[in-house]
Structure formats: C-alpha cells, structure tokens
TrEMBL record:
Family: Belongs to the type I cytokine receptor family. Type 5 subfamily.
Natural source organism: Otolemur garnettii
Function according to Swiss-Prot or TrEMBL: Cell surface receptor for IL3 expressed on hematopoietic progenitor cells, monocytes and B-lymphocytes that controls the production and differentiation of hematopoietic progenitor cells into lineage-restricted cells. Ligand stimulation rapidly induces hetrodimerization with IL3RB, phosphorylation and enzyme activity of effector proteins such as JAK2 and PI3K that play a role in signaling cell proliferation and differentiation. Activation of JAK2 leads to STAT5-mediated transcriptional program.
Signal peptide: 1-17
Subcellular location as annotated: Cell membrane
Protein name, UniProt field: Interleukin-3 receptor subunit alpha
Pfam families: IL3Ra_N, IL6Ra-bind
C-alpha cells in the first residue's frame, strides 16, 4: 500500500511540462491529474479546436477546450501526451508518469500482466518476473475501482520456485467488482537493492475478460421424447446462444443451436450422447464443450428381469383374487346377519303332507302303481 501511494506522489512530480515555457504560449501549465484522469492546461488568449494525442496514436477531443479525459490512465507506463490547437496553430507535450530515476530498474518491473475471470466467481491475474529483477524482488497486486476509488489488495498469491509472487486470485468477485465499473490493476515491486517500477493495466469491460464456464445440463426422458434443460452462470455476461452436439445411437452427430431459452426437446431419443457449450452474443466468447453425457431413454429389459416381473405379477394377481374372495365372504356373512330371511306363513292344509305337495285323484280309478282303494260307508250308530 505504501508503495502504491509513493507511486501516486511521484506521478504528481511528472505533471511539469517537458517543453520550455513561453509566457505568451496559447496553452500553458500542461499537467496530469491522476485522480480524475484528466490532462489539463491553462489558456492564454482565444484558442479553439484543441485535441489531445496519446503516444501519437490515440486522438481525444478536448472538453470545452479546457481538458481531455484519459481513459485508463496508466500510473506505471510512460506515455507522451500532446495537446494541439488549430487556431492559432500550436502544440505542446508532456510525459506521464516521469521516466524512472537513475536509481530505478525499469527492466525489473513485472511483465506480461493479464487478468482472467474464470469459474464464475474468480479473477486471476498472472505476470512474469522482470528480466532485470534482483534476486530478492517481490511483487504485490492491487485493484482500484476507477469510479469509486476503492482499492483492494489481492491476498491469494502463487509463487515460483524462488518464492516470488507471479499470480494472484480474487475470490467472490460478485461482491468486489461491479459490472459497469472500470478497474486499474497494479503490480508493485520491492527490493532492498533498487527501486522497482510498477506495472498496470486498465480493465474497462469485465465481460470481455471472462472465460465462460460450461452450462450444467439435466435431462428427463422416456420412449417418446427427451427434455434437456441447463443453467448458465455468469456475473458479467447475460445473453447467450447454445450449441448442442447430439449423437443418437450409431448415427452421425448433429449440431443444434438454441438462440432463445435454456431447454431443448429431442423426439424419439432412444440411446444418445450430448455435449453443450455457450457463446456470448455480443463478443462471441465461447465456453468449452461440456463432457459427453450418455442417456438411455428406452432401455431393453433383460430376460431375468422380465421373468421376475411376470412372476411378481402372477403372485400379485393371486393375492388380489384371495383378497377379493375374503371380502366377498365377509360381505355375504355380514349381509346375512343384518338381513336375516323372513319366515313364511304356515299352510293349514298342505303343511302336513310330505314335500308340501297335494295330489288330486278320483275314486274308482287306479293307476298301475296305486294302492287298492276300498270304499267305506259310514253307518249311523244306533
């Protein structure tokens, strides 16, 4: 932290113009304000059509002819800033920050600094040790939110065989980095033998440095269709299209593109293998292909399982038949108790005959199997 503030103080010393000041110059007191990222000056007389040029490449239009806003102003890399007026024709320039002092070692600064968002929640920055760095050099990384000026030191370092830091990781970035903010990443160096210059980069769009993670897919399927759904996670990219590579059985693989939504319906799937990847809409960032996933949506039943299933169905049928019989028996017995049969009235004529039947016959006639009938005449007693 002390080294970073030391760098800031040194930048103020570099605000002096590098040209000899003429009291009558149309543009005077050229200077850089690191905090506001402005290249400012004083006007002498009526001056118009002013522009700023960074390193003879980047042209920036002046605001109200009073200043130029420098996006991604570096506190470590020396750049030439030229201010040029058309009316009257005039130009002046300044170097910012000032070149390293004689006791410094520019070649000892960290090199090849770059940062990458990965695995959704992490930012890792990597660099290499400066070619002229002393053996005791050590590096530390800081991030600064350009919009809020909030500064964070990175805590999770990775070192080389000598113990020199060459990488650092920020965790839980959704709470530390904001989508539309600009960030300056600075690597400061320290050594007992020499002053080590810093190295920095500006990240103006976090979405562009993200390595997209693969979508996470789940599937529900049966004989007629397979519904594939997936989830895509990113804190800085929101719009994607998806590519699915599907191979059914031994057929050649086909490529399906899903531009809207996060699902795909595959008819008559059978056995198939699928891979998926995501592509960001605006910058065409691509994730890697997911690992192949294999699904069997209409599995063939082995003979042992079929025999077991048939036996189980037979046993279940027998059990159901037995239960039905028991239910019917219990129901008949209960009905008999609740509704007993009603006795019929006794017939005074026929109830004393066997089998409750009457036989009609005429006197004087005989059937082959009938007994002989003798007429009896009743004589009145005297």
């Amino acid at each position: 932290m002390v080294l970073l503030w030391l760098t800031m103080l040194l930048t103020w010393a570099s605000c002096l113009p590098q040209t000899i000041q003429d009291p009558n110059s149309p543009i005077k007191n050229l200077r850089v304000d690191p905090e506001s990222e402005r290249l400012t000056w004083d006007l002498n007389g009526n001056v118009s059509k002013i522009e700023c040029i960074k390193d003879s490449i980047q042209h920036i239009e002046a605001m109200r002819n009073m200043y130029c806003h420098i996006d991604g102003l570096s506190l470590c890399t020396v750049s030439n800033y030229t201010v040029r007026a058309s009316e009257p024709p005039f130009s002046t320039w300044i170097l910012f920050p000032e070149p390293a002092s004689p006791d410094g070692k520019p070649e000892a600064a960290a090199e090849n600094l770059s940062c990458l968002i990965h695995d959704v929640d992490f930012i890792t920055c990597n660099w290499t040790v400066g070619q002229g760095a002393p053996s005791d050099v050590q590096y530390h990384l800081y991030s600064t939110d350009v919009d809020t000026r909030e500064q964070r030191e990175c805590l999770h370092y990775r070192a080389d065989a000598r113990g020199t830091h060459i990488s650092c990781r920020f965790d839980n970035i959704s709470k530390k980095f904001k989508y539309f903010h600009n960030y300056v990443i600075v690597v400061n160096g320290s050594s007992k033998d020499a002053r080590i210059p810093c190295t920095d980069i500006t990240i103006s769009d976090l979405s562009r440095i993200e390595k997209l993670s693969m979508p996470q897919m789940t599937t529900k399927c049966n004989k007629t269709h397979s519904l594939m759904t997936w989830k895509m996670r990113s804190h800085f990219n929101t719009r994607f299209i998806y590519e699915l590579q599907i191979q059914q059985g031994t057929e050649p693989a086909i490529l399906e593109t899903v531009k809207h939504g996060t699902s795909f319906l595959l008819p008559n799937p059978g056995r198939y293998t699928v891979k998926i990847r995501a592509q960001e809409v605006y910058d065409n960032l691509l994730s890697e292909w997911s690992a192949p996933q294999h699904f069997v949506c209409d599995p063939e039943e082995p003979p042992q399982a079929r025999t077991w299933r048939v036996s189980l169905l037979i046993a279940l049928g027998a059990l159901l038949a037995l239960l039905l019989a028991l239910v019917l028996c219990r129901r008949y017995s209960v009905a008999q108790k609740i509704f007993p049969p009603i006795p019929r009235m006794k017939d005074p004529i026929s109830d004393h005959f066997p089998n409750d039947k009457l036989m009609a016959w005429e006197a004087g006639t005989a059937e082959p199997e009938d007994c002989t009938v003798t007429e009896v005449r009743l004589v009145k007693e005297t």
